[in-house]
Design a protein that fits this description.
Layout: H1 3-8, E1 12-15, E2 24-28, E3 36-44, E4 48-54, E5 57-62, E6 65-68, H2 75-80, E7 94-99, E8 103-109, E9 114-118, E10 122-136, H3 139-145, E11 152-154, H4 159-177, H5 181-184, H6 188-207, E12 209-220, H7 223-235, H8 240-255, H9 261-289, E13 298-303, E14 306-312, H10 313-322, E15 330-332, E16 340-341, H11 346-349
Helix pairs in contact: 8-9
């Protein structure tokens, strides 16, 4: 009789996973088609969880600790198999141990560039790579997604699928974020945190995993775009007017009076362009530094016991001239504690100063 034949006829009374490997996510306990003894000992070690599966259906999930397997602590298995109270016969079930550690240094990379639309540079190709880390959030949900018959399920069996998810979400979210392209490479830490917040709900919903870390280690763009960004960044810090005048002066020193007309014309055009850019910049600065306009004042007016308005000062002035708004009329604006007569409100008092007095009675 071989060892396998001997093992096949035995009842299982001890179930555990004594040594977990860092890349093994799930370990299936080797039952050899044997039955599990009622009252068997289940040992779940630190950073582990154990899931009992009845004919492909996830059942009871056990946390870290030592468990005696009876109907009292196997409620789902008991329900699925319609076991009666006091059931003590051996039973069959598959037992899967989940490695609850954090799986780190998982690589991701863009095999093909993603396209980002920038307001100034148009459609730009971006390439990048980095790493991420994850751990189990819901072992039952993961089991339903990847119901594998293998004795072990490793990170190699899922890394390609997770990488595709990362790339797809990056493409969508970078396009929606509308971040200027020159700030992408300069803010990789903030961008990594943003994508972590975006990706984690997808990992949890679709796979029962928690994305614990996400890092962008490199994000690159075409060389011509890099060059253009560098030039623009320098122009922001250079006094263009002084630069153009300096180049013009140097051209006179080097060429003297022998410079041809086209060279001189080019230098003059350069100076004009520089002056125009400086003027535009100064105008923008002036507009930016202008104080905000004063807030508009408006009043509500009581007419025949009804609230009307609000009316701005121009409309109120017209009402005064027409005689519909009088000093005795009740008015109110935001900030006033109660309605008041228009003639007692300082902002409205001068409106009544320009109203002519009533005409004298006709001479009979």
């Amino acid at each position: 009789m071989g060892l396998f034949d001997k093992l096949k006829g035995e009842f299982i009374d001890v179930i555990d996973w004594p040594k977990s490997e860092p890349d093994v996510m799930i370990y299936k306990f080797p039952r050899y088609n044997n039955e599990i003894k009622n009252g068997a000992q289940l040992t779940v070690r630190p950073a582990q969880k154990a899931l009992f599966v009845n004919e492909g259906t996830p059942a009871d999930l056990y946390e870290e600790g030592r468990h005696v397997l009876t109907t009292q602590n196997m409620p789902i298995m008991t329900t699925l198999n319609s076991w009666k109270h006091g059931f003590n016969s051996p039973f069959k079930a598959d037992v899967f141990f989940f490695n609850m550690i954090e799986f780190t240094n998982m690589p991701w990379g863009l095999k093909n560039p993603i396209i980002v639309n920038d307001d100034r540079f148009g459609m730009i190709e971006l390439r990048g790579f980095g790493t991420y880390a994850f751990k189990f959030a819901d072992p039952k949900q993961f089991f339903l997604k990847f119901n594998s018959a293998d004795n072990e399920f490793t990170t190699d069996q899922i890394k390609d699928q997770l990488r595709s998810l990362v790339v797809m979400q990056m493409s969508d979210k970078l396009g929606e974020a509308a971040i200027p392209v020159e700030k992408l490479a300069a803010n990789m830490s903030e961008l990594s945190e943003l994508l972590l917040q975006v990706l984690n709900p997808v990992f949890e919903k679709d796979y029962g995993l928690t994305l614990t870390k996400f890092y962008i280690e490199n994000l690159s763009m075409p060389d011509e775009v890099k060059k253009e960004i560098m030039e623009l960044s320098r122009l922001d810090k250079v006094d263009l007017d002084k630069l153009a005048k300096m180049k013009f002066a140097k051209s006179l020193e080097n060429g003297g009076g022998s410079g041809n007309a086209s060279d001189m014309m080019g230098m003059m055009m350069g100076m004009n362009m520089a002056n125009q850019m400086m003027n535009n910049q100064n105008n923008q600065n002036k507009q930016t530094n202008m104080p905000p306009p004063p807030p508009l004042v408006s009043f509500y007016v009581a007419v025949n016991g009804q609230q009307t308005g609000p009316f701005d000062m121009a409309a109120l002035s017209q009402q005064v001239q027409a005689g519909s708004l009088k000093k005795e009329s009740l008015v109110w604006k935001n900030g006033m504690a109660a309605w008041a007569q228009a003639g007692t409100v300082p902002e409205l008092a001068e409106l009544f100063m320009n109203v002519p007095p009533p005409l004298p009675p006709p001479i009979g």
